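# step 3/5: fold
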Amino acid sequence: MNILWLQAAGCGGCTMSALCAEAPDFLETLSGAGLEFLWHPALSLQSGAEVAALLAAVERGETPLDILAVEGAIARGPLGTGRFQMVSGTGRSMLDWVRALAPMAQHVVGIGTCATYGGVTSAGGNPSDAVGLSYDGAHPGGVLSADFRARAGLPVVNVSGCPTHPGWVAETLMLIAAGRLAEKDLDPLGRPLFYAQHLIHHGCPKNEYYEYKASAVTLSDHGCMMEHLGCVGTQAVGDCNIRPWNGEGSCTRGGYPCIACTAPEFEEPGHPFTETPKVAGIPVGLPSDMPKAWFMALASLSKAATPERLAKNAVAPRVAVTPTIRKPKGHR
């Protein structure tokens, strides 16, 4: 199967994330699944007139298109013309090309939160009128209509994340190539369930601190960042802590709170990312499937039972108290 990858309005960070994949690398993974790029702006040799001719051939149906992958939001401005982002040498906007090519593709995939929901590109008043492929923030209907279906019958597949995980992109494309991705395999926001059925909280190295509500106060502390530092890992979907980047990294593993970058409208939460909004001292962003009264009751009990080790380590930049070494039974 072939992939036509367009890079719209964004930073290109999702391509950079994919290229950082190791063991195996991103291109080896796709090649092993029988996937190849018809064209990619950073990885392909063709440019200029060659690309313009390729796009025209796909639009006319002369060159079959299996997967249209779009990275970055699509700018609709000014005044719905899309002329804030023109595709060089074609005299046409990226907006026009996406709308022309999407109906020709067997599958359409949004790569990253900008392409899926608008993301950071749409923040700050959104002067370019940037939106995602099938969503404008959390609202259905972006560049393509809410009821859009690619030729194979699927809606736009939204591989959100800022940047998105290389494993999410590769696995999505491989599932498509194998004919193993159906609409039932997507969540209500079009995200593949293989990663959207998990929470960032799952596998977080700070979970022991969370259980006892032993909270960090500054970003250098070891404790849970939910109570004071804005972490929304108990609400955000993703398996970042189950399969970290290159087996090692994630935001919370690096000591930074989860900001729910896989969700629509994460880019403007209405407060600093590293602050937890509270009402009467109670965090507003509680776990998504737990009643507030239950959470507060459990939190009070947990804090009362917090081991000294966790209480001290939570507000320390490094481990201050090591675990107690218990002697085996029957030994002096």
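# step 4/5: annotate
The chain has a mean pLDDT of 93.
# step 5/5: archive (pending)
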